[in-house]
Amino acid sequence: PRRVNLQDLRKWKVEGRKIVMITAYDYPSAVHADLAEIDVVLVGDSVAMVALGHDTTQKVTLTDMIHHCRAVVNGCKRPLIVGDLPFGSYEVSPEQAMSSAYRLIKEGSVDAVKLEGGKKITETVHRIVQGGIAVMGHVGLTPASVSAIGGFRSFGRNCKEAKDILEDAFALQEAGAFAVVLECVPQVVAKHITELLHIPTIGIGAGKYTSGQVLVYHDMCGMLQHPHHAKVTPKFCKKYAQVGEAIQEALENYRDEVRNGEFPSETYSPYHMPKEEYEQFL
Ligand code: KIV
Ligand code: NA
């Protein structure tokens, strides 16, 4: 199948066909997303939290991101693949951002990059797009700023914040972004922004009126089922499966069968030695 491109996204926005996006971080998650005909796959810096166990996304490096991007690219034929520029790889200057974006494209092999922030990074977005790289924006809750924000929270629940998000989204569109993620904003705010922009909006915790939706793979699959981890699964995320429970059960069954000698049975002991070889061996 032909890879999804920016023209498809533009067309789908006009037709009102919703864009389906999911994160992936490795080969198996990428293959699953591809086989499920997901439109856009994001190698998110959320990898820091759901795959590497860090408390925030700030801890992931550009080198880490490239490593994960390469694995995802190996598993995805059809989806457009977007890679997150991580915290610290684009804020210093447009030049720093451009060199990071080029690395993510050339070494990570992704189709487009995403970075967080609105008005204050639009010069950077413009320069990256002028440099030939497709950019997706990300406004509302921007998790990479969590240490300055002081925790994860929703954005745009008062008029001032809602106006800021609208202006940020507009500025990104003007700078040449091909789409913008709206994270943790009220549905009415996301709806209004979606109606005013001509580029697609992708919502997460932003209600049903955006041009598309994105969820974090591990969260929507119910990968981390322990009470300890349940805390970090956001309340807007529907769990479409209890994959973590299935994995836990498999591991415990394996443990028990090894201990009681049930595994490996004859079926799983496939390498046989001819009798005469065996006798000689003894
Ligand atoms: O890193 C991530 O998973 C993201 C999505 C939540 C949009 O940026
Ligand atoms: Na991200």
Your description of this structure?
By secondary structure, this protein is an alpha/beta fold. The protein has 2 domains: 6-241, TIM Barrel; 246-281, no CATH class. 44% of the residues lie in helices and 13% in strands. The chain has 13 helices and 8 strands. It has helices at 6-15, 27-35, 47-50, 62-75, 94-106, 122-130, 146-149, 159-175, 187-196, 217-220, 227-230, 243-260, 275-281, and strands at 19-23, 40-43, 80-84, 112-114, 134-140, 179-183, 201-204, 212-215. An 8-stranded parallel barrel has the order 1-2-3-4-5-6-7-8, surrounded by 7 helices. Helix 9 links the parallel strand 6 (179-183) and strand 7. The protein is elongated. The structure holds 3-methyl-2-oxobutanoic acid and sodium ion. Its EC number is 2.1.2.11. Pathway: Cofactor biosynthesis; (R)-pantothenate biosynthesis; (R)-pantoate from 3-methyl-2-oxobutanoate: step 1/2. Keywords: Transferase. It catalyses: (6R)-5,10-methylene-5,6,7,8-tetrahydrofolate + 3-methyl-2-oxobutanoate + H2O = 2-dehydropantoate + (6S)-5,6,7,8-tetrahydrofolate. One of its GO terms (cellular component) is mitochondrion.
